[in-house]
Amino acid sequence: MSAHKLISINNCNIEGSNKTLLNNISWEFKTGESWLVIGPNGGGKADFLKALCGQMNIVPDSAFSDSIYSNIFNDSVEIVSLERAATLIEEERNNDESEYVEGGVDIGRTGRVFLAEAILGSKVKKNTALPEEAYRLDGYPEVKLCGIERILDRGLKYMSTGEIRRTLLCRALISKKKLLILSDPFAGLDVDSRKILLDFFDTIAKKQLDDNDSLDFPRIILGMERYHEIPDAINMVLEFAEKKVSFCGPKSEYEKIRDERNSLSEKNREQERADFENNVEEIKQATFMLHTEKVEDEKEALIEMKNVNVGWGDNHVLVDLNWRLNKGEHWLIRGPNGSGKTTFLELITGDNMQVFSNDIKLFGARRGSGETIWDIKRKLGIVSYRLHVEYRMVNSTTLEEVIISGFRDSIGMYEAATDVEKAAAKKWLALGGFEGREKEAFGSISYGEQRAILILRAAVKCPPILILDEPCHGLDESFRQKILDLVEIIANSGTTTILHVTHDPSEVLECEKKILEFHPKNSPMYQIICR
Q1: What is the pLDDT, as a whole number, of residue 211?
Q2: For residues 321 and 525, what is the distance between their CA atoms, to the nearest angstrom?
Q3: Are 240 and 45 in contact (CB under 8 A)?
Q4: What is the pLDDT averaged over residues 303-312?
Q5: What Cα–Cα distance (Å) separates residue 281 from each residue in 284, 438, 453, 455, 458?
Q6: 360 and 485 inside one domain
Q7: Interstrand relation of 5-15 and 514-518 (parallel, antiparallel or unpaired)
Q8: 150-168: per-residue pLDDT in tens?
Q9: What's the DSSP call for residue 125?
Q10: What average pLDDT does this structure show over 525-530?
Q11: Lowest mean pLDDT among 156-165, 424-433, 467-476
Q12: DSSP code, position 306
């Protein structure tokens, strides 16, 4: 049986609202194939995947007589990505009506409402009754597969990163769309969730390998920032780099090329790290006057929590937590999705108001004793999903301004930058691989590049505490290694103490000797481990 074409792109351009983003792209998706789309941050992969799901245009190039684009899926395409999750939270925040709601809390759309909209094919108006089918969602196999039964009636904006990713996947499955694009789907998922998703992908992808042109089951295209946790069922790879197709063909051939690249990279690794460390030290010395103040009493705990309890209604997130952070003790924070990691960090950053009803001291002072949020944030560097969402809401801010805002603890810029700040920003951007891109808008770069910029922003002032909540989300292999090197260099400097949340064992740093592990609700809620 000969393979049938599902998508055919020949000599076409990918166009955004105002310009051509990718030129002269050719690619075919046929029956019997299971594709991985991969490539470095900013290399064109994200633009290509957005075009496949209709967020950008695929336009035949009139310069070629054989230029053609055909897609049997038409608009029956759904994408699940970090960017889609961030956009969803932006929508919820823009529609927040807490100031008009009795009690001052507008939980927004719940998971149940969000999934019901996929069933209905339209948005559900606020304060209107849901269809009966919405109340049957608890029994849907898609809901059970994604493990979101417990959070169906929770507001989307109160879900953890992993929970909202699983909710998006569930919506994609319930929507019955014929093509699902899963972009970096394992980012932010705990071990159990990763296994569920990997098994699901393999089940669907193996059907694709049967050379069946039936549309009775959804086809899947997997997008990844780095070659990690690749399902066995993948047999074809499309790679983008520098806004061009850099490889298109069988996975076996791609892996040979990767092995050659890795071998060459390993030879240069030691020297590259040494050069990078020297560059970081030079920049720190050159920008010393812009660094944050030091902690006055070095014997005092940086953070101390006693019998901390946080929850909403019957949902107890943290129960009787006792924990202390001393200077120079770098901690790994881990635990399954929804176990309380982000809530714990938000008590420190001041983004959770229940900090004031608990016995929590930061830098020797109990929260609520007269200090402002700015007094606290001046001593913190923060990288989190929440911060990323907030920055996407001021996405016209330039990369230079984002870096400078790290010295000022602001979201965006509200006063003119000094020449010293501009010079410092230029140095940090060059260190991160963004040399010459100071005036680019934050919103115009890829999600992974945005995350790298925010990590640089957090590091610039060498804060007493650096809080990293899944910092490597969306980063390709090169950026990821560079960022992990930067964090370790900062940790070894002796001026900054690290709190690091990650689900990926390969991202755990040697300096992280202590572990705060959060557990599901059917066991003790946390555990302190020394390694």
Answers
A1: 61
A2: 8
A3: yes
A4: 88
A5: 5, 21, 19, 17, 16
A6: yes
A7: unpaired
A8: 899 988 988 877 788 889 9
A9: P
A10: 78
A11: 156-165
A12: E
Question: What whole-number distance in Å separates Cα of residue 500 and Cα of residue 364?
Answer: 22
List, for residues 230-239, the tens digit of each pLDDT value: 888 899 999 9
Contacts of residue 26, defined as CB under 8 A and 6 or more positions apart, other chains included, come to: 9, 10, 11, 12, 245
In-domain check, residue 511: yes
User: What is the C-alpha R_g of the chain?
Assistant: 24
The 3 state secondary structure assigned to 67-92 is CEEEECCCCCEEEECHHHHHHHHHHH
Does residue 242 have a pLDDT over 60?
Answer: yes
| 343 and 439 co-located in one domain | yes
- Can you spell out the DSSP letters for 30-61? ETT--EEEE--TTSSHHHHHHHHTTSSEEEE-
CB 514 within 8 A of CB 529: yes
Mean pLDDT across the chain: 86
Mean pLDDT, rounded, for 179-199: 84
**Are 346 and 460 part of one and the same domain?**
yes
The reported pTM is 0.86
Which whole-number Å values give the CA distances from 31 to 12, 52, 330, in the listed order?
21, 17, 50
Look up residue 413 and give its two tokens: 């810029």
List beta partners, residue 22.
Answer: 14
Decide which of 252, 286, 320 is a domain's last residue: 286
Q: Of 231, 266, 286, which residue sits at a domain end?
A: 286
User: 416-423 long-range CB contacts below 8 Å, 24 or more apart?
Assistant: 420/287, 420/289, 420/290, 421/290, 423/286
Q: Is the pLDDT of residue 323 over 90?
A: yes
pLDDT recorded at residue 297: 58
Q: Does the pLDDT value for residue 522 go beyond 80?
A: no
pLDDT tier, 299 (very low <50, low <70, confident <90, very high otherwise): low
Average pLDDT over residues 243-265: 93
Q: Write the CATH number for 210.
A: 3.40.50.300
Q: Are residues 469 and 329 in the same domain?
A: yes
- Which residue pairs from 83-89 have beta carbons closer than 8 angstroms and sit at least 24 positions apart in sequence? 83/46, 83/183, 83/447, 84/168, 84/183, 85/161, 85/164, 85/165, 85/168, 86/385, 86/388, 86/389, 86/392, 86/447, 87/392, 88/156, 88/164, 88/168, 89/156, 89/157, 89/164, 89/389
Return d(Cα 430, Cα 216) in angstroms, integer: 50
**How is 397-459 classified by DSSP, letter by letter?**
SBHHHHHHHHHHT-SS-SSPPPHHHHHHHHHHHHHTT-TT-TTSBGGGS-HHHHHHHHHHHHH
Q: Which domain holds residue 483?
A: 290-530
